[in-house]
Amino acid sequence: MTTTLAPPAKPWSRAEFEDRLRAVGQDRYHDRHPFNVRMHRGGLRPDEVCRWIANRFHYQRHIPVKDALILAKLDSSRLRRMWLRRIEDHDGRADGEGGIERWLRLGEAAGLDRETLLSGETVLPGVRLAVDGYVNFCRLRSPLEAVAASLTELTAPGLMRLRIEAFERHYPWIAPDGLAYFRTRVDQGRRDSAEALDLVLEWARTREDQERAVAALSFKCDVLWSLLDAVEHEGKSGHAGPHERAHGQGGAGEHG
User: Fold this and answer.
1) Rounded to an integer, what distance in angstroms lies between the CA atom of residue 56 and that of residue 228?
2) Residue 13: which H helix or E strand, with range?
3) Contacting residues for 21 by C-beta, under 8 A, at least 6 apart
4) In angstroms, what CA-CA distances link 65 with 57, 68, 100, 207, 226?
5) What would the pLDDT profile of 53-87 be if each residue is shown by its tens digit?
6) In the chain, which ranges are continuous DSSP H helix?
7) What does the pLDDT look like over 30-39, one tens digit per residue?
């Protein structure tokens, strides 16, 4: 008795493949997470904002790390130059520049200590696990999957604009200069996502590769969602981290 193998599924058209990638962001991006929804509606206390800034910084500082791992997988000077710019965007070309520096200034604008942020002592275990998972994904998976995972940036520019408006309206106790990271990422995210999308659409020629790319993007959405799960859970547990004890739990009354 012989077994007839089913022929491999036909690849999606370029347009359908792009639609499926975009649908992942629309359906699963962390802008829908309850913590982000509360943030953008003005429902966070100062200690919750500070907890998010401190834990999100752990993710921010690992962006150039994962991008260095992706860069090492690229096989042309053109692609490496393109991806190197992402590392420079976050690390800067000199001290005092780049997205990591701007995030530190956001923390300082919120009243957090720079050295405490850099020490990582307030980072929650769930956040460490999520970030480690993403870095290791970029280390171990194919260039296609690693680049596809970055396509959360397709949705990020809209989120950055929403976040700027929310912080200006609801959290005026954070100095406007502290929002520079969000303002910068609107244009950077639009540029980076367009470049990465072109690569993924070009590289994924088979249905199997296309499905792997969609799964990689879904995984990245899970990483961002899990990060916020950890931050949200810590607030519900009633535990105060070091930066929250320093600012007190009743800060909402102070800042209106």
Assistant:
1) 9
2) none
3) 148, 151, 154, 197, 200, 213, 214, 217
4) 13, 5, 12, 30, 20
5) 999 999 999 999 999 999 999 999 999 999 999 99
6) 14-28, 34-41, 46-60, 63-71, 77-91, 99-109, 114-119, 125-140, 143-149, 156-170, 180-203, 207-237, 242-247, 251-255
7) 999 999 999 9
